[in-house]
């Protein structure tokens, strides 16, 4: 190394020393500029620009053609960490190879998503792995290890976990607050992040849009208190897109953007994703905060240091030493045969056989009718790459059984739309000369269709065009021309057949048919405007006309009233092909861009009504009807009369081939449900109820009967379990048992180990996953499965003492094929730490550390840190603190409160013995006052506190 070479360029030095040297060379303005997602180059030091963020949830996304693997929830359904690690490795290799050709491809990848699938109506269910924190962290750890690579110093890509913290709703996602009690925080939401971070392959996290306990996640005190204590590595915290501005604009948490930016930076946010590529606004806010004394240069330095740490690990400053740089230059790691095979393997392992009365697998000579809205579809989602290869269920079945043995009916209604003057909507053919893509010759490239304005808009004529009307439920539909093009609305407002699939941040391919007079208005959902027929083509009405039409006023004259002429009902086509088949496969599910996606939660577990009608029609025509659900989330489906049901997430490029091979028995299904499938909407908690303990949520606490339980999945083989042993030793419980394939085909089994505390002093899970293993067994073969689980995994968060506690007593160990299919069990006795009463006489109680509550929510004690409790909507709420030890006696009680209202204190269910209320409302929600009252208690009692009015309670104390 030359004497003139600065130390930060010396690969022989530790990264930390190199970062120190580089930091010393950067000016404050240069460091400030680094805080935006698009960090500029520093030419005087030879530093290149850097962008945080590259989506890579199940393949490299948004950057063109890439291998598309199953959705994350599908990867979770494999219960196979080694497979998922290989998928992560393939994705990171493609990211490197793509970057070699296009420097827009980033190496700081924003994935995986480890938000727990607590509520199945969450629109982003497809992005998570499981409702269980241990399964989630196991799969996420595997994926991040694949993304990171195995070099001890350099990383192939730098994974960032999404979305910190307790984020499970799209409804009001940037203004809603998740009320998360301490036990749920530690035992559930933090656990998935912690285990993955501690595994050592995570570069950082992204905070979520929502608030937790009244405080925006971008100000989360847990970033410093917990996250950054779990690893010695510098963790990079990247904001979600637009979230820094939300602190002022939608959440109104601060009055100025300078205050908000300073608070987020001090809380631990290191990179601000805001205003796209324009960094000027963020830079100006940081400078304003510095000038106002809201920030110091040391605050800026801490964030920049963490950014640079990631950049060094990615080999940016050592291209000649980076083991992942050279190979990518050849492009050899992009769309390889190995990656194509892996995509198929992952899709096969993700299929879950939910029910089978013997109709599956299908024999080679079977005549198959494949029907349904998704039968000839290979759907992508918002975080998919562009398909290079694709297979639909229909294509897979053609390939496996032969086109002469497979019949098909999509099952959509075929319609024409007639205008008031008797003409029909007409779609010009795709091969019209004006439909050629600019700068191309011949055929139209379907990938370039959506949003185009050079195509001719729809017109009307005497015959019209027969359109496929696809009903996705909740009144939302798409319309497709005979050549496969979807009707779409471009920026100029004209309706064109110009999309290969529904998609985009705002979907422009969905409509609603609204009854109006003697016909229907066709309302475009993207703009909210009705369709009208004008001299220059079919378009959406102008905004003022749309408002009139929506209100039913005279303005509706500008909107066309259509008569819906049904040429063929979808059920009739299904009945026709189903009757002549040996087996009918109904492929149902969702389009990942419609009725359940980012920004939009679902409203029901039910299948859309049209798909239920198709299923009934198929079943009525042919009892041998198999339901194959292809969806991003669970459904509640009546399965009693169906001989077989399967589920798979949207499986990427190999989805159809994989499903066909499962149906034919080439592969025995072994996917397992990563979340509970509830039988009815009535079984679900409120979407915003984040208290999995109090709300009895997920398989951990749910006391009803699910449609299909967590961990469920059948096989074409059968498996026996035996020889269970369990022993407590050296701070762990060692469990062993034997699994034997008692069937006639080779197959995978997923052996699962659960635990249940038999005599808990607080509510504990009905059963809780401790470990699992997916293993492959030939017919008659056995394998000995052994797990060693640390006793700490059996602990719970003791709110009385603000720490983990392993409770003594008996624990049932349950071994089986699902959370409900228990084959073996035994009990071990643990010598833990006995419960002791809360020492309230010495330290009082923090309001948030309740054992039970009703009618309350947790709110922010201050804008920076701490929790308080308030009655929901300023009404009445109650808190219960069990086994409070007042010692020799208390003679007074104090409460720390803000707002207006009253606090009532009672013992053991008796009447209030003290009522405390401020003389006047406090100046603000964070202006706490201490109120005191006489109070007498000694010994151990349950303490009951009632809140009335708009009052925040932070602490209850007692004096002798």
Automatic annotation (TrEMBL):
SUPFAM superfamilies: (Trans)glycosidases (SSF51445), Actin-crosslinking proteins (SSF50405), Beta-D-glucan exohydrolase, C-terminal domain (SSF52279), Galactose-binding domain-like (SSF49785)
Entry keyword annotation includes Chloroplast: no
Keyword Signal attributed: yes
InterPro entries xref list: Actin-crosslinking, BXL, CBM6, Cellulose-bd_IV, Fn3-like, Galactose-bd-like_sf, GH, Glyco_hydro_3_C
Sample GO molecular function, one term: hydrolase activity
Domain of life: Bacteria
Domain CBM6: 843-959
PROSITE patterns: CBM6 (PS51175)
Alphabetical UniProt keywords: Hydrolase, Signal
Database matches in Pfam families: CBM_6 (PF03422), Fn3-like (PF14310), Glyco_hydro_3 (PF00933), Glyco_hydro_3_C (PF01915)
Family classification: Belongs to the glycosyl hydrolase 3 family.
Name of the protein this chain belongs to: Glycoside hydrolase family 3 C-terminal domain-containing protein
Lineage of the organism: Bacteria, Bacillati, Actinomycetota, Actinomycetes, Kitasatosporales
